[in-house]
Amino acid sequence: MEQSGVNDVAKLTEIHHGTTFRDQAMKFMAHSITRNKKPVKPATAASWQNCLDTRLLPILGDMKIFAIDSETLQLLVAELYKKQGQTAKSVNTYVALAKQVITSATDERGNLIIRAP
Question: Considering only CA atoms, which of 24, 95, 108, 37 is closest in space to residue 66?
Fold first, then answer.
C-alpha cells in the first residue's frame, strides 16, 4: 500500500489542493474530446473552449479547484451579469460549464475528489 501512494500525504495534497481551475479545464476539454463514450462534437468543443478562454479562465483560472464553492460561483454570476452585461441564459451556460469542469476533477483511480458547488 505504501508503494501505491495510499499514505503519501504530498500526493494527496497535490490532488486536492494543487490543481487550478485552468489545469482542470484543460484536462476536462481533452477528456471530453477523446473519451470513448459520446465524445463532444467539434462545434461543442469549440464553443466550450471559447467560453473558457473569454469568460471563465480570466476570472477562475488561477484559483485552486478545491477553493471554488457556491459563493465563488455567485461572484462569477455577478461579474458576468452585472459588470460584463451578459444575458441570464449566457451566464447559466457559463456556470454550468464551470460546474462540469469542477466536478470532472478525479484522482488517478477515477474517483471524484470534488462535488459540485
Answer: 24
| Residue 3 Cα distances to 9, 57, 64, angstroms | 13, 36, 27
Q: What stretches of 1-117 show up as alpha helix (H) in DSSP?
A: 9-13, 21-34, 42-51, 57-60, 70-78, 88-103
Place of cell 477562475: 60
Structural domains of the chain ordered from first start: 9-103 (1.10.150)
User: How many separate helices (H) and strands (E) can be counted in the chain?
Assistant: 6, 0
**Per residue in 3-60, pLDDT tens?**
444 444 444 444 455 789 999 999 999 999 999 999 999 999 999 999 999 999 999 9
Does the global pTM surpass 0.90? Answer: no
| Residues in the chain, overall count | 117
